[in-house]
Amino acid sequence: AGLLGVDPGLSLGDVLLGGANWQDVVRRAPTPRLSLLPGGSLLAADPQTLRGMRLARLVDQWQERYQLVLLNAAPGANPYLAGLAGRLDGAYLVVHLQRTSYRAATQAAARLRRYGLQVLGCILTAIDG
Fold first, then answer.
1. Radius of gyration of the chain measured on its C-alpha atoms
2. Which of 10, 45, 112, 127 could be disulfide-bonded to 117 (CB atoms 3.0-4.6 Å)?
3. What distance in Å separates the CA atoms of residue 17 and residue 70, rounded to the nearest whole number?
4. DSSP secondary structure of 53-65
């Protein structure tokens, strides 16, 4: 959220714990037609909050409201993706050009496929260094 110039405030963690409605937490980004729902520090500290049907129901609601829904998730640390696979159109693999080895990228892609997700493409970051 901070990279897009948006103050995160409440986050997805607050929504999953029942402390907020996602509609009140979604932020408009400076880019036209882009909204985001920050994950928040709670999710970084406790990925267990992502388990269960609550996130799956949220994904269903987002897909009704938005044309495209992207979730930012590290495939190795988030086995909950397996439970969401049937609700998602696929996954984009995000690769840090200077830090991610070929082996790590291929293992991550294979893990996504094991979860039942189609790998739609790859997004390279840190191209300038």
1. 15
2. 112
3. 21
4. HHHHHHHHHHHHH
